[in-house]
Amino acid sequence: MDASDRQPTHAARLRGLPQVTVRLILLGRQGSGKGTQGARLAVHYGIAHISTGEMLRSAIKHDTPVGRVVKDIIDQGRLVDDELIASLVKGRLGETDARTKGYLLDGFPRTLPQAHAMDDIARARPINIVVDLEVPRDVVMARLSARLAAEHRVDDSPAAVERRLALYEEQTAPLIAHYRRQGTLAVVDGLGTPDEVFARLVSVISSATGVQGTGGDGTASR
Description:
Blueprint: H1 10-15, E1 23-27, H2 34-45, E2 48-51, H3 52-61, H4 65-75, H5 82-93, H6 96-101, E3 103-106, H7 112-121, E4 129-134, H8 137-151, H9 158-172, H10 174-182, E5 185-189, H11 194-209
Parallel strand pairs: 1-3, 1-4, 2-3, 4-5
Helix pairs in contact: 2-11, 3-4, 5-7, 8-9
């Protein structure tokens, strides 16, 4: 095949676009460290860190009507309704910081219907990389057991954790195939120190988007 006939890679297509911003989905089991890494990545790239878990916990804490519904669902170890989550995410992505600077989504999508909803939400400015932070199930169970003992979080009872991990494997894991077909998926090893994992994530994201982030001195570079 002549080189001129070859299709450009996803990263090459993105580098050809002006004013690239990072629009990232971070996947991974609960306890994989994606919350911690997501917060660091958001600072590094100067983007909005949008955690649906934090949005829902805030609603529960403030005892809003949505929060009461969500608390009942979480206490049973079930996933929150797709339409409710998609509506919350769509509203958040319409805010100025997410629209102009880019964003990292942590906790959405978790199901194929949510992924299809996200495809529609982001149609005008598509997601440019989806990262699966891969950590074995036995490792996340050990981490979550330690967190349960230390923090007594309402959504971390042993039974709820077991149900949620089973739901992840049943409903969320197929997202990997969905995004692999789209050409946006990158799988990153989540084992090691937080700094080691962060370095892997930055390498993969910067390679895919062409955005280098702030580095260590707080000045954005490309």
